[in-house]
Amino acid sequence: MLASTAMQLNLQCFLLTIFLFPLHSKAGRPAEPVYDTEGHELNPGEYYIIPFNCSRGGGLFLSQRNTSLPIFVRQDISQLSNGNSVTVIPVTNNLPAAEQSVRLSSNVRIQFVSCATCLESMAWTIGDPEGTDSRRHVVAGYSKRGYGQSNSQFRIEKNGHGGYRLVFCPKVCKLCRSACENVGVFIEGGKIWLGLGGLPLAIEFKKK
């Protein structure tokens, strides 16, 4: 009787090990890389963020809505425009910059590469609520001391109909679950602006 019970317990442990091992192995794998339009893994080089499959409008660039900072991120209406180039930098990767690759669902910082007239950081940030609808724009030009804050971190996810989408997942505290929002576009004053929510924006990354 005792021998039979022991055999049953050993069999249960064996089956449980077989069941759990693939899950553990899969969980230990790194997330899938993000790829550019040529099929290469995204790294901290320079890229243009353009609409997926030229679906709507052109690339992204900086545009002022008034005479003060911050500067707002806007989409060109012309499909022929690549916009301004950006770098996409992983936040938690300990590898040297030249060896880093950007992966899905990982926190990244996005920063415009060149701005001859800019004195502040060109890192993307989610701005404060504005207007009657409390719209939160994607902006740049805040002080560099705010560069490492959570409102400057984004994630890249696969889009259901092809391409990728940008997601903002603010972290309120270490033990809190983030409430993620898609970065979309909305039309205001005849111009296309980036912000939280709005119309969906499927994107891809084109190497400069």
TrEMBL record:
GO terms for molecular function: endopeptidase inhibitor activity. Pfam families: Kunitz_legume. InterPro entries: Kunitz_inhibitor_STI-like_sf (IPR011065), Prot_inh_Kunz-lg (IPR002160). The keyword Signal applies. Keywords: Signal. It comes from the Eukaryota. Residues 1-27 form the signal peptide. This is Alpha amylase inhibitor.
